[in-house]
Design a protein that fits this description.
The complex is a heterodimer of chains A (291) and B (350). By secondary structure, chain A is mainly alpha-helical. Chain A contains 13 helices and no strands. Chain A has helices at 7-15, 20-32, 34-59, 63-81, 84-95, 98-119, 124-144, 146-152, 156-181, 183-191, 205-220, 229-255, 260-289. Chain A is elongated and about 100 Å long. Chain B has a 26-stranded mixed beta sheet that branches. At the A-B interface, helix 2, helix 3, helix 4, helix 5 and helix 6 of A face helix 1, strand 9, strand 21 and strand 25 of B.
Chain lengths: 291, 350
């Protein structure tokens, strides 16, 4: 076949480095091209040998992170184990810094001045004002007191009740945030194959499609962090491969509805898709059970 | 009274102003470097006293908060052992004692929980409990740099793991599920069920019903067969390869989506062997005297066999789904189904 794929593209396809459109194109081409399928299988075999050997290297934690973690831990430990007089001395040393001391003194001066100004009037006019205020003082006290009494009295339940009813909209708001998450699964679903949208099912296909739709929904609602980045790439690639198979087998069955082989392959492809979706759900369940 | 209070305030104010001026004057002087360097913590270099970073796969630092603990419990010869290990290297071995021993290095304190006892009062079902579990964390899960378990050879093990490398040797029955890490099982007598979310599964010299599944890893099986009539073998991976050597079950169902399937063994009479891959290769190495019914399906790719086969029906029109139904060797009552959507199918002599 002309325009065979470069080995670099095939390797990128295996490594999941291609864009989703490109993955579909490569997958289509490999489906039609024997020599490219051969190249793919050779590359897979090589990967099967190389990746397990390097898996530990890929998964290993970066030493710098560990080093920093250790340094921070040891500093924290030392801080925690330091005696109180050392901590007090450190605070004192910080305070005797001239700039800090000057600033603190300035603050003291400003504070004292403010206290002086607020503590009482110095002029006779102000004193008169104070006397007039003192004359009105009982009225002010009477106004202020009923409020705390109302809070602690029998009316307090009336006050707290609105606060309870007020808290309900908050809960509703929280539940309202759930639908806002739903667009993301539906976006995922948009990336899924077009099989579900096609109403003209071949015999026996409908039950598979329904099962896949429900699984798609449950998988889309799940925590995306369950799968690692490499697993997500692998999942997307496998899904593209399975969808391509389903698409081709559907057309084969429609072309020759009596072909039992094509029907079996279609069923097998659907089953692969269900298994693929189930594997994600199974992992999610397992992670949840270990929390 | 007010007059005295005003005088007092003024005095304090004057003292504060004087103090602030004196401190301000002191601030004009050359700053001494000592105060900033004084605290003991700062004077040490960042890594002084800190041991050097561990080697790449040394988990000692990670688990340094844990201790070393060992416990043993007398049990019945055939017990159910339920174990949950979240992290670490796990080794489970069998011995000829009616006793379970658990050794944890760099992990939490633990205790045995007796779930059920037999008529003689000895435990028949036990599990390990983490005594230092923080609230909100599954208290039935232990962890450690190394977790070693010795259990009677008649143990039926149910193991759940998060990020563990598990090696199990010599149990009666094993059921393992891990989120990440490799699973290695050996010398299991009456059945294996293993699921690795992200890791490989290796099974050696294990018998009985076998059910293996992994998402991203490879499945390798060497020397396996039924322990009872009707025991089946199932292996499934999404992205990895499946390699089977000397697997003697009569019912095999092996599939991979984008990996290859390799089988090196015998086709037993009356058996049903199903090997499928969507985007990989199927390679079989069979004895030259093999006889069975063969049904091969492929779309792109090809079918090649070193063993003689007699075609019964064949459809190999270009661009269409190709299928071959044939008698391999002299034929027989075993059925071999091969399906590779976009890969090669090859049969060669052993």
């Amino acid at each position: 076949m002309k325009n065979c794929l470069d080995i670099g593209i095939i390797q990128s396809f295996l490594d999941g480095e291609l864009a989703s459109g490109e993955v579909t194109r490569v997958s289509d081409h490999i489906g039609d091209c024997d020599s490219c399928a051969m190249l793919l299988s050779q590359a897979e075999d090589e990967n099967a040998v190389v990746f397990p050997a390097l898996a530990r290297e890929f998964d290993a934690m970066v030493p710098t992170q560990r080093l920093w973690a250790r340094i921070e831990d040891s500093i924290e430990t030392e801080k925690a184990s330091a005696p109180w007089w050392e901590k007090a001395y450190a605070v004192f040393v910080t305070l005797i810094n001239p700039q800090v001391g000057a600033f603190a003194a300035l603050l003291i001066v400003v504070g004292l001045f403010a206290m002086y100004k607020l503590s009482g009037p110095s002029s006779p006019g102000d004193r008169a004002g104070l006397i007039s205020k003192a004359a009105n003082a009982p009225t002010i006290v009477n106004v202020d007191r009923p409020a705390p009494a109302a809070l602690s009295g029998p009316d307090s339940s009336t006050i707290s009740a609105p606060s309870r009813t007020y808290s309900r909209p908050t809960v509703e708001n929280a539940s309202y945030s759930v639908p806002s998450r739903k667009p993301s699964p539906s976006t995922n679903n948009d990336q899924q194959p077009t099989v579900i949208r096609d109403a003209s099912y071949v015999p026996g296909e409908e039950s598979y499609v329904k099962t896949i739709a429900s699984l798609n929904k449950s998988v889309g609602d799940q925590d995306p962090n369950v799968m690692s980045a490499s697993q997500q790439v692998s999942y997307a690639r496998n899904m593209a491969v399975v969808d391509d198979t389903i698409k081709r087998m559907r057309s084969a069955v429609k072309k020759d509805p009596k072909s039992e082989t094509a029907k079996q392959m279609l069923s097998s492809a659907y089953q692969n898709k269900i298994d693929l979706l189930n594997s994600v759900a199974q992992k999610e369940d397992l992670v949840a059970s270990l929390k | 009274m007010t007059h005295i209070f005003q005088k007092f305030i003024l005095a304090v104010l004057a003292a504060a102003i004087t103090g602030s001026f004196s401190l301000g004057v002191a601030a004009q002087a050359t700053p001494k470097p000592e105060p900033t360097a004084k605290p003991k913590i700062k004077t040490q270099p960042p890594d002084a006293g800190v041991p050097p970073p561990p080697a790449r796969h040394d988990y000692k630092y990670k688990y340094s908060r844990g201790g070393t603990y060992e416990k043993a419990i007398a049990v019945a010869p055939n017990i159910n052992l339920t174990l949950c290990v979240t992290e670490g290297n796990l080794r489970i071995n069998s011995w000829n004692r009616s006793e379970v021993r658990v050794y944890v290095e760099g992990g939490p304190k633990f205790a045995f929980k007796v779930v059920d006892k037999g008529p003689d009062g000895r435990p028949v079902w036990i599990s390990a409990m983490n005594l230092q579990a923080t609230p909100g964390v599954n208290a039935e899960c232990i962890w450690g740099e190394t977790v070693e378990v010795d259990a009677p050879a008649g143990t039926s093990l149910k193991l759940t793991g998060k990020e563990i490398n598990a090696q199990v040797d010599g149990m009666r029955k094993v059921n393992v599920k891990t989120v990440g890490g490799d699973i290695s099982l050996r010398n299991i007598k009456e059945g294996v069920s293993a699921y690795a979310g992200e890791g490989g599964v290796t099974v050696e010299e294990s018998w009985g019903q076998v059910n293996l599944e992994t998402t991203n890893g490879n499945i390798v099986v060497v020397d396996s067969g039924p322990s009872d009539i009707g025991d089946t073998f199932r292996a499934k991976t999404n992205s990895g390869a499946v390699s089977l050597t000397r697997v003697t079950h009569r019912a095999l169902d092996v599939s991979s989506i984008s990996g290859s399937v390799l089988f090196n063994g015998e086709i037993k009479s009356g058996g049903t062997y199903t090997f499928g891959t969507t985007n990989g290769t199927i390679r079989l190495a069979l004895p030259s005297a093999t006889g069975c019914k063969l049904a091969a399906t492929f779309r792109s790719g090809s079918f090649a066999s070193e063993l003689p086969f007699k075609i019964e029906t064949m459809n190999v029109a270009p661009g269409d789904l190709k299928s071959i139904v044939a008698k391999l060797g002299g034929g027989g009552d075993a059925v071999l189904r091969l399906s590779a959507f976009a890969g090669l199918i090859g049969i060669k002599k052993q």
